[in-house]
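Researcher: Good morning. I'm working through a list of sequences from a screen, and I'd like to move beyond sequence-only analysis. For each chain I'm collecting a predicted structure so we can compare shapes side by side. This is the next one on the list. No need for commentary yet; just the structure.
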Amino acid sequence: MRAALICSEDSVFNRHVLPSFLSSFSELVAIVAIRDSKSTRRRRMKFEWRRSRWRILDVLAFRAFYRLRLADRDRDWIQRRAESERANLPPEPTVPIHVTETPNSPETRAFLERAQPDFALAACKTLLKRDIFDVPRHGTFVVHPGICPEYRNSHGCFWALARRDLDRVGATLLQIDEGSDTGPIYAYYTTDYDEKAESHVVIQTRVVYDNLESIKQDLDAIIGGRMKPVDVSGRTSAAWGQPRLTDYLRWKRAARNGS
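Model: Good morning. C-alpha cells for this chain:
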C-alpha cells in the first residue's frame, strides 16, 4: 500500500512524526511539505474578517495572549511527545519531498502523479482542490481536530470546549472532498484530557497521538474496502472560526467551576 503525505512544513508532528507513522503500515512514497507564506496568512485573515467582522479583534487578542502565556509551554509538550512517539516508530524514511507554497499547483499534481500513491493523508490548513486530492487511487484522508459535522474547520476542539459540548471533544477521520471537512466520515476518536490545565492545542494533539494505533487500523480497513462511512444524516453541520479570547476565558472559568 503506497502512501503520500501532504503536510505543513513547520509542524514537528506533521512533518516528522507522521512520515514514520505512515511507514509503520504502508510504503511512504512522497511528501508534499507546505511552506506558509505571508500572502497565505493574509488570505486567512481576510477570510476571518469576512466571518467575524469586528470580532476579529477578539481573535487577534487571543493570538497575542497565546503567544505570551501558552505557546512556549505547548511547544515543549509537543516536542517531548513527538520524541516519545518517534522512539516507538520506524525511522523517518527517505522519500521524495516537494516543498511548495501552493499545494494546489500543477507542479504538486505532477509530483503526486509520479509517486502513484494508493492514498494520501493530509495534515495542513490549506483547502485542497480536486486536482490534488483525487490523484491517489483511493482518495485523500484527514484526521480533523474536531467532531464532524458539528465542528468543522481547524479549531473544532476549541469550540466544543468553549461551548461545553464535552461529548464532542475529539477527532474525525474523513475523506477529503471539495468542501471544508464535509467529506465521508469513517471514525471518531477521543481521549482523556485535563481541560483545566491543558490548552486546546495540547488537547487536540493528544487526541491524535493517543489514537494512532486505531487510526492506522482504520486507514488500512478503508483502503482494503472493509470499512464504510458513518451515517450522519440529520445531524447539524457547522463551520467554526478562529479561537477568541473571550471564549477562551469563558471556557477556562467554566472548567475551573466544573460547569
